[in-house]
Amino acid sequence: MGIIAWIIIGLLAGAIAKVLMPGKDAGGVIVTMLIGIVGGLLGGWLGKVILGVDSIDGFFDLSTWIAAIVGSLILLLLYRVVTGNRHA
Questions:
Q1: Which residues are within 8 A (CB) of 33 and not within 5 positions of it... i.e. 6 or more apart?
Q2: Which of 4, 55, 60, 88 has the most CB atoms in a 10 Å sphere around its CB?
Q3: Which pLDDT tens digit goes with each residue over 27-75?
Q4: Where are the domains of the chain?
């Protein structure tokens, strides 16, 4: 996948993660996109290590989106733990 596809997946996966895990976050669109992009990579890596599957196959594959959303949820949780209530 190209960089534009990763940015789109990152933006959408980060937004979905924020919807699934509501709360106050200081991060705007850029932080959401970064959480989503890195979350997608994290989710793909975890899928490969834990389940032994290549979970990042293509833009329209369901496994790509699931990996990106799960990875984004993990990173959003870590982001909230690290930043604490400084932004609340």
A1: 7, 10, 11, 14
A2: 55
A3: 676 777 788 888 877 777 777 787 776 655 666 777 778 878 888 888 8
A4: 3-82
